[in-house]
Amino acid sequence: MTGRAVEASRKVHVTQGEHHVSDDPAVVATTVLGSCVAACLHDPVAGLGGMNHFLLPDDGGRDDAGAIRYGAYAMEVLINSLLKKGASRQRLQAKVFGGARMFDGLSDVGATNAVFIRRFLDDEGIPLVSESLGGQAARRVEFWPASGRARVRATTTAPAGRPAPPALEPAGDVELF
Description:
By secondary structure, this protein is an alpha+beta fold. It has helices at 71-84, 109-124, and strands at 10-13, 19-22, 27-33, 37-43, 48-52, 93-98, 128-133, 139-144, 149-154, 173-176. It is 17% helix and 31% strand. It has a five-stranded mixed β-sheet, with no helix packed on it. Helix 2 (109-124) links the parallel strand 6 and strand 7.
C-alpha cells in the first residue's frame, strides 16, 4: 500500500425513465441499453454530471409528453437537475449511447432515438463530444459524472434469432474521456 486511500466506487443503476446527477468522484452511473438512449451530460468546470435513460423520443401524440420515459422531457429534467446543483448550461458537454436496432421486422425505434438526441443537443447548443449509437448490439454503459469519463461495452447476449454481437474493441471496452 502506498499510503493513499483507495476509494471504492459506488454504482448507481439508472433504469428507463430515471436520471442521476452527482459531483461525487466515487459515483459511477450505470445502465444497460438496447434501442433506448442514455445521455450523459457533464460540466467540466463544476465537476458535475448526470445520466438519463429514455425509451422513446416523444409520446407519439398520446398527450403524456410529461412522462420521463420520453426524450424531450428526460433531457429537460436532466439539464434542470444539473443546473440546480451548480452546472452552467454553456459548459455542458454530452456523450450519448444506445439506439440499437434490436428486432428485425419492427420499426427502428433505436434509429429514431438517435436522430432525436442528436437534434436535441444541436438545437440546445450542447456539444456532442462522443457517441456510441446504432448497430444491433445492446450496450452496458458506465459514466463517472464528476469527471465525465465513460465506458461502453457490447453485451454478450443477442436478441432472439441473432448471433452474439462482437465486442466493440478486442478488449470489449471503449473508454471515452
